[in-house]
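Dear H.,

Thanks for agreeing to be a second pair of eyes. The structure we're designing against is below in token form, covering all 106 positions.
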């Protein structure tokens, strides 16, 4: 059995049975079906890449850890650089406070 076939067999044995659980957890995290599907896909890709290093114990915990780390990275990439320009953040924050105050009278 080649390394690729062994990886595919391990993936089929440990990862594929957990896809439904992964999707339910991803949906509870993201609250958005397309984002949940993307997160599951990212998790499965990462799992496939590292299946050769997986010892076979506790596959669900292993996969959920991969998912958690993938989600953390996704959120970090989306988060604006609030501290990149503090003056811009302060101006934006002041603008939001003005908007929250509501319409002003004449």
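And this is the sequence the design step returned. I haven't edited it by hand at all.
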């Amino acid at each position: 059995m080649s390394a690729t076939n062994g990886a595919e067999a391990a993936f089929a044995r440990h990862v594929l049975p957990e896809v439904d659980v992964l999707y339910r957890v991803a949906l509870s995290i993201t609250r958005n079906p397309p984002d949940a599907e993307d997160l599951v896909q990212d998790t499965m890709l990462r799992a496939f890449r590292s299946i050769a290093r997986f010892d076979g114990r506790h596959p669900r915990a292993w996969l959920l850890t991969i998912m958690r780390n993938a989600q953390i990275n996704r959120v970090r990439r989306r988060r604006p650089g609030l501290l990149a320009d503090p003056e811009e953040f302060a101006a934006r924050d002041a603008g939001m406070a003005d908007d929250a105050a509501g319409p002003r009278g004449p």
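Two observations from my side: Residues 59-78 form the longest helix (20 residues). The two ends are 80 Å apart (CA to CA).

Warmly,
E.
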